[in-house]
Amino acid sequence: MFTLPQKESKAPTTCPGPASTQDLDSNHGDGLERECSRKPDWKLPEFCGGGDPTATASSGSSHLSSRGSIIKWFWDSAEEGYRTYHMDEYDEDKNPSGIINMGTSENKLCFDLLSRRPRTMPRVWGRWRGPCPSLCPNFSLREEVARFLSFYCKSPAPLKPENVVVLNGCASLFSALATVLCEVGEAFLIPAPYYGAITQHVYLYGGVRLVCVYLDSEVTGLDTRPFQLTVEKLEMALQRANFEGVKVKGLILINPQNPLGDIYSPGELRDYLEFAKRHKLHVMVDEVYMLSVFEKSAGYHSVLSLEGRVEPASCDFGMSGLRFGTLYTENRDVATAVASLCRYHGLSGLVQYQMAQLLRDRDWINHVYLPENHARLKAAYTYVSGELRALGIPFLSRGAGFFIWVDLRKYLPEATFKEEMLLWRRFLDNKVLLSCGKAFQCKEPGWFRLVFSDKAHRLCLGMQRVRQVLEAKSQVPDDPASCQSQESGNQRR
Amino acid sequence: MFTLPQKESKAPTTCPGPASTQDLDSNHGDGLERECSRKPDWKLPEFCGGGDPTATASSGSSHLSSRGSIIKWFWDSAEEGYRTYHMDEYDEDKNPSGIINMGTSENKLCFDLLSRRPRTMPRVWGRWRGPCPSLCPNFSLREEVARFLSFYCKSPAPLKPENVVVLNGCASLFSALATVLCEVGEAFLIPAPYYGAITQHVYLYGGVRLVCVYLDSEVTGLDTRPFQLTVEKLEMALQRANFEGVKVKGLILINPQNPLGDIYSPGELRDYLEFAKRHKLHVMVDEVYMLSVFEKSAGYHSVLSLEGRVEPASCDFGMSGLRFGTLYTENRDVATAVASLCRYHGLSGLVQYQMAQLLRDRDWINHVYLPENHARLKAAYTYVSGELRALGIPFLSRGAGFFIWVDLRKYLPEATFKEEMLLWRRFLDNKVLLSCGKAFQCKEPGWFRLVFSDKAHRLCLGMQRVRQVLEAKSQVPDDPASCQSQESGNQRR
What we know:
Two copies of one chain form a homodimer.
Chain A: H1 30-37, H2 53-59, H3 66-77, H4 80-87, E1 100-101, H5 111-116, H6 139-152, E2 164-167, H7 170-181, E3 187-192, H8 198-203, E4 209-214, H9 231-243, E5 248-254, H10 266-278, E6 282-286, E7 311-313, E8 325-328, H11 332-340, H12 349-360, H13 362-390, E9 395-396, E10 403-407, H14 417-429, E11 432-433, E12 435-436, E13 447-451, H15 456-472
Parallel strand pairs in A: 1-11, 3-4, 3-5, 5-6
Antiparallel strand pairs in A: 2-8, 7-8, 9-10, 10-13, 12-13
InterPro entries (chains A, B): Aminotransferase_I/II_large, Ethylene_sulfur-biosynth, PyrdxlP-dep_Trfase, PyrdxlP-dep_Trfase_major, PyrdxlP-dep_Trfase_small
Region (Disordered) (chains A, B): 1-37
Domain Aminotransferase class I/classII large (chains A, B): 140-452
């Protein structure tokens, strides 16, 4: 059906594509290396890599600039899983043996609610247009966004519409922020594992790199939970970058975290903001899963409940196809500079109209959408986590987002990314698509992200296929009681 | 109403903003110069400039990168006219003494037709979505675009859907093409006067510059019409760029031309393509006004009727707020590289659905929309051109597009851009917004672009205000019979 590979807006990297951990210096093929070396500033990000080096070399085109070749290379070498998936998508009626997608972080549970929402449809070529079909969303939409964020982020004072910038998605926000905050070759800190596509978002147009703050599953005396971010780790990563001559201009946080599902406490958030202030770093907090915290006891707090900072926040209805992302920042220079790029990340007037209508419908959101959405997310989570427990598989979740971070390390004969990749491919061969840890820059081979925000029949079939693959392995789970879950702070069975 | 300045997608520069002709080297203020000098490759385009240098200096922000400051500076210093306009927009009932906008190249004549088109509205959160809410428009939309372009561009063979890339507007297409075809600091050739916003489109993200092929109104032995582009002029501009060490990678053509309203004959087009082939240049042909040729005898030919080349073509329903631009290229490397950037220039699934529906409705387009649109454009043109003739004002038009290129040189006491600016400001003070030649890099002071694609009562009032300003000047038009029009090759009275 598709001749050019199609991309998902969330979780685009399920397999070790260019956002993966292999060191590109030894791995990206001569053609690309040669292209890159032509412009000293336009270095490849140190964390991209993987894919097929020979394919990389052949992607160099005399028609393209060096950065054009890199952009094409990212595309060509990424997302083997999604290409396979799109050629063989599961359909209950038409293709029941097709691939179940547990890799894309999209909320498939509530499309019916959104479809049934009472609404006034605009006359498509008329009413939505308004007197000024500006590229930048009009002020009334920004007013709606400000009201919406004030309410759901529990800001101490009402947020100001003039601090709101609306673009066509979070990818564009990261791209624009990287460009206006950094010179080519400068960097942002980011705790890893992280949503791997951010590597491309800051790099493809901006030429900006990510410096990873690597987290691991080991629980030390200082750390109270696996993969916990600490100021000490931030300081060490920054020092390392400084030592290597990489200028760091900002810190990216994702809260609730993707893929960990972790949630930062207000105290932790304050510590990270203090660290950033100390080192004069911009802080960008991606709160795209803010409204998908389905465990009330998880204790989620938006950074906007603390104080205003540069931050991209994306209103979250799990509709990646809608293309809607908002930035709230009290730094007017940054707001203006990002808004200046809005003609390249413009939102259709039709979508502006629809979103303003939706955001305004507080009654429906509060009394219909959110309660039902959270109940469905929780039910899906309960089912999948129960299946994992029955298999004796440890996992992490705090009751937020669409995914569980699953520890399949014991299914790898050796703790290598090669073995992780082989396991990932066995899942795909058995018609279930997952995302492996390497795609999120996880340093420990064997972790997978499993998306559960899907209808029961697909979830059930997907988990059955996961189980088949794992049970076909000779290693039998040693102790089902060892399930490690952090859902709402409780160990669940 | 608007706190951040709003931008128009077409004709964004009515006044001498940063896309203007003044040499920035002597004019852009110390702050910006300092920023730019930090990155030798990230030079300001030589043709931008203007605005208030002191304002420029103050736009340098310690929070922004050097390119971020430049991006913000473009925004801050541009579009005085649009800011004034948006604060005081004409409204027949609410603000009858407000500003009439004859500066934005938008077709305000046919919104009623588009509103009344029989259509099936999708269930907004349902049907349009489809199984894969990909960022890149789905294949069926690309099939529709290919069929549409094959028909209206009269291509010798059917165009292929896999060569179609769809992004959220022409601005994004230029930005993406500049990035994937050029290194930072490289350049495209473009005949001037040209739609000034292209300067920003290729520069803001791509760091690519434009090398002007300056045209003038003088009719020489070789040139058969004012502002005619010749291969000789292309060769000279390319030689000059080479001499100055600027690497030129492509040629941008706009056909029908904006702001000249000129149309290239098939023979001329072939000559330009031959020139480009000889020098290994990419050719990008912007055909955004292709369906707005309202004089059949104008003899318009799309470049796709000749042969396939890299070219951004934007389907034109004069709906700048819709955000829809298409690229057709037979160079697969270029198509893939541009498509790789589509997550930053993504189109809402809702707009994809609407556009596919619209493009498919060939019967309505052919028998309702286009005949009526052309009739209305012609009527509006006939009125405005008649008014200009009555005033004895020479102008150029070939019966295409939404505007007339008007020669007001005789109203300038001196042939300077300062006087052009003063005249432009007198129009604005008298509540009518026009675009002056400087915004299009015209080398001759005194030319203005006047948009006529508006409802009769606004046009009438706008022309009345134009007349008031011109008649207030002491110079009385010397000979009403001297009107120079190229409408369909005929001199009209």
